[in-house]
Amino acid sequence: ATRTRSKKTCTVIGGCGFLGRHIAEQLLQRGYAVNVFDIRTTFTDDRIQFFEGNLCQTECLLPALEGVFAVFHCASPPYSADDRELFYRVNVDGTKILIAACKQAGVKRLVLTSSASVVYEGKDIKNGTEELPYAAKPIDYYTETKILQEKTVLGADSADLHTVAIRPHGIFGPRDPHMLPTTIATARAGKMKFMIGNGKNLVDFTYVENVVHGHIIAAEKLEAGSPVCGKAYNITNDDPIYF
Ligand code: NAD
Predict the structure, then answer these.
(1) Position 178 in a domain
(2) For the segment 43-69, what is each residue's pLDDT rounded down to a tens digit?
(3) Separation of 150 CA from ligand 1 center, angstroms?
């Protein structure tokens, strides 16, 4: 990777994933140098420095965090994994390891990709704000660990390491491996001929570049005295989508 000393470097943990790669690309467009840390390498880009490793291992993380301006944490086992132990190991324990490694490396800014489902208990939410309490009964293990992960990251906010959480719901856009392929497969299987509810069920999808923009401007504001520190932010497009 070509580096100039004047560029600030950001590290994207999970940067080979759907969202992470978009974060890496928008960071490059905004003039940052970019490190990608992921357990797998799925693409190449001469402008990016790639680090392959498991975020649960401090010794893997540290080289990717050295001299870094901001860390974006958007790694997670896939929602479909349905593996309680894996979700706990990566999302909860791994996030604690990442926080400690950030502090050890002297990183000052950490942006977490959380999820809107941290406040969802199965009942419709309209015009929900960040004041809503965490779900007392999360709908699944994934969500249970996303709540613990968000609490851990926001609880770690301090003078040493400023933290913020961004909460998207569904994300769509180029290279989406989840939403559109699943919808098409469901339709192909003939399972879209039924309607559950009255056709007014609400769901929120946000365009990936808007989700990324929210992450980057949060990172840029994440400094001592900023109201952003230690907070969670919902992120959405303007209009609700009826599903
Ligand atoms: P993704 O599966 O495409 O990407 C996740 C990346 O994390 C993958 O590249 C994977 O290899 C990496 N990873 C997993 N375990 C790892 C480990 N132990 N060490 C290092 N890397 C590891 O998922 P995505 O859709 O890009 O989601 C990114 C984040 O956004 C996740 O935290 C997810 O909870 C959150 N989120 C996604 C959506 C959505 O609709 N896609 C909605 C809300 C929240």
Answers:
(1) no
(2) 999 999 999 999 999 999 999 999 999
(3) 14
